[in-house]
DNA sequence: CCAAACTGATTGCATATTGCAAGTGGTTTA
DNA sequence: TAAACCACTTGCAATATGCAATCAGTTTGG
C-alpha cells in the first residue's frame, strides 16, 4: 500500500479552483466532510461504519490526515477515553457548507438522487444563503464552542426531514 | 493503459453529494469545465495546451468522454473543418457556475491563490447569485444559441479584470 | 478480574487510475 | 506537395484505491 502521506499541496497552479481541487478533488474527501457536517460523526469508527458509501479504513485514515493537514478538520484526543479521538470542523471546514449545498443542489437537479437522501439538498436549496448562514452559526457552536445561536436548529430540522422522508419511502416500499 | 471507459455511474449511493462526486470528483473534470466556462476553450487542442495545469492528452480525452456521457458537455463536429470537434456546455454544465463560484470563493479565502488568478473568484464572490445568473444567461447565448442577453458582458468583464491583474503583477515582478 | 468488544489506525496484496512521451491516420494550410 | 495541425490512442511506469486481515492498547460486562 502506498497512500498519499504528506498531503503536500501539489501546486499545479495558483488558481483558486485548482487549489480547492488539490485539497478536495477526489471521491472521498467531501464525503467525509459531509458526514461530519450533516451526520455529526465525530469519531473514526462512526465515519467508517455509518456512511452510505462504505469507505475503507485505510482511505479514511488517509483522508482524515489530509483534511487535518489542510486545516479543514481538527483532531483532538477525547480526555474521558484515552483511545478516542474527536474530529471537528474548523472555520475553514464550516465554510464548505455553501460549496456542499451547491454541489448537492446540482446533484439533486441533474442526477438520479433518491427521495430520502435528496430531501436535505432540496431544503438547503430552497433556504439559500440565509439558511446556510444560520446552519454555519450552528456548526460554529457545535464544533468551535461559539455561543449557541437562538431559534430553531437547522441541523435538527434537516435531520427530522430526512427521517420523515426515509420513513415515508420505507412505507411505500 | 486502462482508463475509465464506460464512465458508468458507480452508484455507491443515491446521495446528491455522492452522485455529484461520482461525476465530478477528481482532479481534472472541473478544471476542464472551468476552462470551457471562463476561458471559452472549445477544442481539444485549446484545452490541452492553454490550461495552467498541463493536463495530459489521454486524461483529457477520457474526461471529455466522461463529461459528455454525463450530459455536462456536448460534442459536435465542426462543419467547416472535417477534423475539428467542438465541445459546448449543456444546460447541466452551465448550472455548474454556482458550484465553481463557491469552490473558487472558498479557495480564494483559504488557500494560497495568486493575485491574478484570484481576481475572477473575488469578482464572482462579490457579485453573488445575481452576477452568476447573468453569467449563466450569457453562457446560454454562447453555448446553446439562446438570445443574447442585454447589458455588459460578464465574461468580458471577468476577462478584462484578469488581464489587468496579470499585467499589474507582471509589472511589479 | 479477565475475556470480549471496541479504539484509531496499519499492512499486504491485487487492481485501477494517472502521468508522460511517442505515435496514429487523417485534414488543412502555406 | 510538404509542413503543420487535428482529435485522439498506445505503451509503460508510477501512483492511488479497495479489500481483508491485523495491531496494540483501552474499556466494558459478567
Most extensive contact: A-B, 48 and 48 residues
Biggest β-sheet strands, sense, barrel of chain A: 2 strands, antiparallel
Query: Which band does the percent of strand residues of chain A land in?
Result: 5-15%
| Fourth CATH level, the homologous superfamily of the largest domain in chain A | Winged helix-like DNA-binding domain superfamily/Winged helix DNA-binding domain
* Lateral arrangement of strands in the main beta sheet of chain A: 1-2
Q: What would CATH call the class of the largest domain in chain A? A: Mainly Alpha
Output the CATH topology of the largest domain in chain A: Arc Repressor Mutant, subunit A
Structural class of chain A: mainly alpha
Mean pLDDT of chain A: 94
Radius of gyration of chain A: 17 Å
Number of strand segments of chain A: 2
Distance between the termini of chain A: 42 Å
Secondary-structure element order of chain A, as H and E?
A: HHHHEEHHHH
Tally of alpha and pi helices of chain A = 8
Contiguous low-pLDDT stretches of chain A (5 residues minimum) are 1-6
Integer tally of domains of chain A: 2
Under the CATH scheme, the architecture of the largest domain in chain A is Orthogonal Bundle
Shape call of chain A:
globular
The assembly state of the depicted protein chains is homodimer
Helix content of chain A: 55-70%
What is the compact description of this entry?
Chain A has helices spanning 16-24, 29-39, 44-49, 57-69, 91-94, 97-110, 115-144, 154-171, and strands at 73-77, 85-89.
Q: In words, what does this structure look like?
A:
Two copies of one chain form a homodimer. The first copy, chain A, is mainly alpha-helical. The first copy, chain A, has two domains: 88 residues, Orthogonal Bundle (Arc Repressor Mutant, subunit A); 77 residues, no CATH class. Chain A is 61% helix and 6% strand. The first copy, chain A, is built from eight helices and two strands, in the order H-H-H-H-E-E-H-H-H-H. Chain A has a two-stranded antiparallel sheet. In chain A, helix 6 runs antiparallel to helix 7 and helix 7 runs antiparallel to helix 8. At the A-B interface, helix 1, helix 2, helix 6 and helix 7 of A face helix 1, helix 2, helix 6 and helix 7 of B. The structure holds a DNA duplex (30 and 30 nucleotides).
Amino acid at each position: 500500500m502506498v497512500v498519499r502521506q504528506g498531503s503536500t499541496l501539489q501546486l499545479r497552479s495558483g488558481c483558486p479552483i485548482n487549489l480547492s481541487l488539490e485539497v478536495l478533488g477526489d471521491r472521498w474527501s467531501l464525503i467525509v466532510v459531509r458526514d461530519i457536517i450533516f451526520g455529526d460523526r465525530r469519531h473514526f469508527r462512526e465515519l467508517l461504519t455509518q456512511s452510505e458509501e462504505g469507505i475503507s479504513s485505510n482511505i479514511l485514515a488517509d483522508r482524515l490526515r489530509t483534511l487535518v493537514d489542510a486545516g479543514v478538520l481538527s483532531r483532538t484526543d477525547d480526555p474521558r477515553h484515552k483511545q478516542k479521538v474527536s474530529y471537528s470542523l474548523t472555520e475553514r471546514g464550516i465554510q464548505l457548507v455553501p460549496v456542499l449545498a451547491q454541489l448537492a443542489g446540482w446533484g439533486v437537479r441533474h442526477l438520479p438522487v433518491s427521495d430520502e437522501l435528496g430531501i436535505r439538498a432540496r431544503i438547503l436549496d430552497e433556504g439559500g444563503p440565509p439558511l446556510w448562514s444560520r446552519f454555519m452559526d450552528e456548526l460554529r457552536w457545535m464544533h468551535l464552542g461559539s455561543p449557541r445561536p437562538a431559534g430553531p436548529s437547522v441541523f435538527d430540522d434537516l435531520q427530522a426531514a430526512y427521517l420523515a422522508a426515509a420513513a415515508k419511502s420505507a412505507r411505500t416500499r
